[in-house]
Amino acid sequence: MPQYTAPVRDTRFILSEVIGLDRYANLPGFENAGAELVDAVLDEGGRFVAEVLFPLNHSGDQQGCTRHADGSVTTPDGFKEAYAKFREGGWSTLSAPEAFGGQGLPHVVSTAFEEYMISANMAFAMYPGLTHGAAAAILAKGSDEQKATYLPKMVSGEWGGTMNLTEPQCGTDLGLIRTRAEPQADGSYRISGTKIFISSGEHDLTDNIIHLVLAKTPDAPESTKGISLFVVPKFLVNADGSLGERNAVACGSIEHKMGIHANSTCVMNYDGATGWMVGEENKGLAAMFIMMNVARLGVGLQGLGIGEVAYQNAVQYAGDRRQGRALTGPKEPNEKADPLFVHPDVRRMLMEAKALTEGLRALCLWGALQVDLSHKAQTEEEREAADDLISLLTPVIKGFGTDAGYRIATDAQQVYGGHGYIAEWGMEQYVRDARIAMIYEGTNGVQAMDLVGRKLAQKGGRAVQALFALVDAETAAAKDHVRMGDFAQRLEKANGELTAATMWFMANGMQNPEHVGAGAYSYMNLMGLVSVGLMWLRMGLAAARALEAGGGDAKFYEAKLVTARFYGERLLPDAGALRRKIEGGAESIMALEPEMFRAA
Amino acid sequence: MPQYTAPVRDTRFILSEVIGLDRYANLPGFENAGAELVDAVLDEGGRFVAEVLFPLNHSGDQQGCTRHADGSVTTPDGFKEAYAKFREGGWSTLSAPEAFGGQGLPHVVSTAFEEYMISANMAFAMYPGLTHGAAAAILAKGSDEQKATYLPKMVSGEWGGTMNLTEPQCGTDLGLIRTRAEPQADGSYRISGTKIFISSGEHDLTDNIIHLVLAKTPDAPESTKGISLFVVPKFLVNADGSLGERNAVACGSIEHKMGIHANSTCVMNYDGATGWMVGEENKGLAAMFIMMNVARLGVGLQGLGIGEVAYQNAVQYAGDRRQGRALTGPKEPNEKADPLFVHPDVRRMLMEAKALTEGLRALCLWGALQVDLSHKAQTEEEREAADDLISLLTPVIKGFGTDAGYRIATDAQQVYGGHGYIAEWGMEQYVRDARIAMIYEGTNGVQAMDLVGRKLAQKGGRAVQALFALVDAETAAAKDHVRMGDFAQRLEKANGELTAATMWFMANGMQNPEHVGAGAYSYMNLMGLVSVGLMWLRMGLAAARALEAGGGDAKFYEAKLVTARFYGERLLPDAGALRRKIEGGAESIMALEPEMFRAA
């Protein structure tokens, strides 16, 4: 059976030595996030998820959720009790606003904890994860009354939340939704329609579930310009905050999925359910994107979280399992065989996993910091710069991060050989669970299009120019560094490929936007490679500083430098290939008529 | 629910226009394999698998195999009847020797059929697939009596066969096996031990199951030099060929796996079972490799087969599902949205799948032809040349082919968006089924080591030199070709990267063999890229010839030229990156001590 230990040492390294949290102590929320408190969150959070959530991961997968004849859904054995402990521990409140009962900690701190929760039990983590997304939309767009009604209990975890976008005929193309919202005399709406793939749509963990639902008012324009957002609680809420009557929304069935079996993925039927508009009429898409951007960063974190736990287990197995001998002669001649660790190709998989998980951890936390800074930095300029960066990088974190998570999980399973394919070892679950993250909250292809079609050009390309400048400046400064100089040069080169690819889009996209679409996915990967590369430059430099300063833990820091080198030698070379693919353009991709794809 | 149509048109193109089967009509077995007969095999075989095997694929996955209290195993509903039809149709006998009731057709023809069978139902195809591997070992190494006793009924499919290698403590490192074989006075052996992961180990499809078992005789040397191969029938066979008493071999349990649920993967307990040695004592590994090489090519074919059926369904869905609009404006303005086909990133996934499946089909069939030629070519020189090539390419076809199959299945699932994750759509099964092919019959990492550690150096590197020369000659000849010249130049460049990587291994491997091990996987991918590239050069040239000759079917041939171009522009660029990774060497991969991988 798999094991999990929260990588607290690594998180702490990133927060204190790479990001330097204490530099932001003057900002609201950060003043409380001193090293001592952060350490406590990481230590206790890591212990909580390992002790309470992780033991339910495999059993939850095997048992799954159950829908009963009355439409109620029960989660796997132990989930209810674990959720109660999650609430009691205050784990749902970390970065929620103090005005609604939250602890007001920086997003960067709660993100660290969320990674651990995902590693321990991704399906479980989705219940509070969705609540978090739904609460974000109410916080940003809801009326004061809506905030007061819903947020305190969503923050405390007493109530859950969901996001209802997809319908049978549409996922990505939300202009096609058919769910209707009929205005009532009292200002409420009657919501009717069917939503599918609703994560945590119905379950037994919370007293109420607050559904956020995209629907169309009568005479709303076709297209996404005619979508509004509604809040539709499972139980109506009385004026005194107590639960009132059951609303006309019900789970019609739960899906049989490849993975995340312990999260209830529901078909939700709205039969004239009572709801209230959140934000302005026909501006639902903008409100939805508030949730969506929170969710996308959370999904990117799923790539990291699953990658981390799969990696940890592969490392364990590579040490335990003996098979064959080192190429340079027996390493442990008294044993019948050497551990898998001696084999370079096993190491290759472990090093890739290490380089990607640690790099993604830094990127996710740095991204979370940008979210904080976009709200809390002292000047408008700083806030905008942070917002630019995180807007640009959200699809990269989601797309590159979840592709990496799947790849790491697949490689970790591979380290186990045949045992990796057997359910009881637990590794195949990670592959199945990791797979969904590439699909939901916008497929990774949709992320790539968001990146090249929307984010690149925003505000005259300011964000991407800022990223280039950042990488240019930091690589230039490190070029002659004794330990990281070679890496800096490799990263500079990769950044050059990214810059060139961007120029190629600019030169060719006007003539034919399909040139951009055809290269979008490679471009997303290229930006991911460079962004994680920037994190490795920073981590390598921080490690070198620490080694120079002495003070112990030398192996930890040496490992960082080796892993940075590995990233430069073994992963950055893809940058050139990705650029050349992008420059291949759209012609060979778009030339075939659909029937020419079909088998004859 | 998925659909499947055997790609008969494409197979025929490869056999007649790319490989040119009629050029070999003077060889034994090929004289019967005229165009008419081959067409009949492809047409009828394609129809048989689509009508009989494919409808059982999803239900077989959902139901799985069942082990009963008495140790018997039943396959999913319908499998027994389908297997009877498989036997009746003579599908098990295609390329088996006529002396044992086979049709004596070339391996290249049966390989074409086997691809279809895998696409239609991989778990089903494994039952005859394993029989085929076991029969190959008896044919090559068995005594005349063993051949006469077992082969006719294995060829006819009346009896099944298995390969028993893996034990709980060893898979790759067969020197560690513990199963014992005690010699008896009558020349037989009593076999005792436990084997795991035995595909088709016990089932209800055949009257008898012929297990080929690796075991150690008393006083056998430690290591793989002390392994012998034994034939252990489930039911002993009387002198008159009728079934005698039940042998002391039984299925202890069946594994719960990620996929191929409809194939029974068994723990097999040998409790003093009666067996007979096949071939010489302590030479079991060589005999095992006879089976293994057959099996590895068959597993490579699984990558292709799953890739093909997943691709076909993604194409179908991309035409049926409407979502969003083309970047260049609505393609079907009367509909509410355009089909997925208009989106370049969807096309990218479909084109990659098309380029890889069609390229792998050519490679697998060309490889199968080398197997035929290694036995049947007229001169010793030709036979050796064919044997060199297929020995070299077997790990490439297995490793590169199955990685590609998993990638294609994953991408095909991705085209379906959220629906791809739901079991009833059938796409997630392809991912789960494809996954095992990267693991069994030697993980793909083991294939890579077989390639660089054994195959490269064999006979002074003759095989790899021959491959380079082939690609050099064919790219040089096509360099100025009006349609394929650009591709030929790209392939020449990729072949240059492969050559340079090979030189790098030679220059650095002596100093430290880990430099070779560290680059093995990239090298396998690089050789796969070049080998499939060679196939695309040939297919492109054949298509250009056909277009020049007129004669219709122009769209089919134009699609080949477009897909070749895509392969050159979008897949071959990886060659440079792979070479640079190889040249990164072992240092950053091997530097960390095991404890430096562990989370702190």
Automatic annotation (TrEMBL), chains A, B:
Annotated source species: Sphingomonas gilva
Enzyme class per UniProt: oxidoreductase
Residues in the signal sequence: none
Name used for this protein in its record: 3-methylmercaptopropionyl-CoA dehydrogenase
InterPro entries noted in UniProt: Acyl-CoA_dh-like_C_dom, Acyl-CoA_Oxase/DH_mid-dom, Acyl-CoA_Oxase/DH_mid-dom_sf, AcylCo_DH-like_C, AcylCo_DH/oxidase_C, AcylCoA_DH/ox_N, AcylCoA_DH/ox_N_sf, AcylCoA_DH/oxidase_NM_dom_sf
A GO molecular-function descriptor: oxidoreductase activity, acting on the CH-CH group of donors
Family according to the record: Belongs to the acyl-CoA dehydrogenase family.
Keywords: FAD, Flavoprotein, Oxidoreductase
